[in-house]
Specification:
CATH topology of the largest domain: DNA polymerase, domain 1
Structural class: alpha+beta
Low-confidence stretches: none
Number of domains: 2
Strand content: 15-25%
Order of helices and strands: EHEEHHHHHHH
Radius of gyration: 19 Å
CATH class of the largest domain: Mainly Alpha
Distance between the termini: 54 Å
Helix content: 40-55%
Largest sheet: 3 strands, antiparallel
CATH superfamily of the largest domain: HRDC domain
CATH architecture of the largest domain: Orthogonal Bundle
Mean pLDDT: 88
Length: 157
């Protein structure tokens, strides 16, 4: 079944969304037009809605296997914070931040809106909508890091 999907590309996040979409479908055609007034590309993708791209395989990462116990405890706290924001805004958790974004936050020396901008896929809109609450909730839940570390230690004893 022929379907159309439209994108307005004006930041890296939307560009990444388009690239993920293109990788996941059997594309039939693509039309693009630059809008100089908006400073963005308008893209129309025509695709076969009945046939996913057979080469597309979403890579999943098992963060418990690749992170240290301490980093995984922090990752869990970040996930809790993301979930709280998602509930408040009635949006899917992936709309707030992806797991990849949370993993990158662990590498930051300090969690601030400015440092969060360095994470690929975290654009100005996410910063404006979610960064302050993410930072606030993360600071409030620091005690949970020790709780999660304790749980991890008890499971491996």
């Amino acid at each position: 079944m022929l379907q159309l999907k439209f994108f307005k590309i004006n930041d890296i996040q939307t560009q990444d969304e388009l690239n993920r979409f293109l990788a996941s479908v059997k594309m039939l055609s693509i039309t693009k037009h630059f809008d100089p007034n908006a400073g963005s590309w308008n893209v129309c993708v025509e695709y076969d809605g009945n046939q996913p791209n057979p080469e597309y395989k979403r890579q999943t990462v098992d963060y418990i296997k690749i992170l240290s116990k301490e980093d995984f405890a922090k990752f869990r706290v970040l996930r809790d914070c993301r979930a709280k924001i998602a509930i408040e805004d009635a949006v899917p958790v992936a709309t707030v931040f992806l797991d990849e974004h949370l993993a990158e936050m662990l590498k930051l020396e300090k969690l601030t809106p400015e440092t969060m901008k360095s994470i690929k896929g975290v654009g100005e809109q996410k910063i404006l909508k979610y960064a302050d609450r993410m930072i606030k909730y993360y600071a409030e839940k620091q005690g949970d890091i020790q709780k999660y570390l304790y749980e991890a230690t008890r499971k491996h004893v």
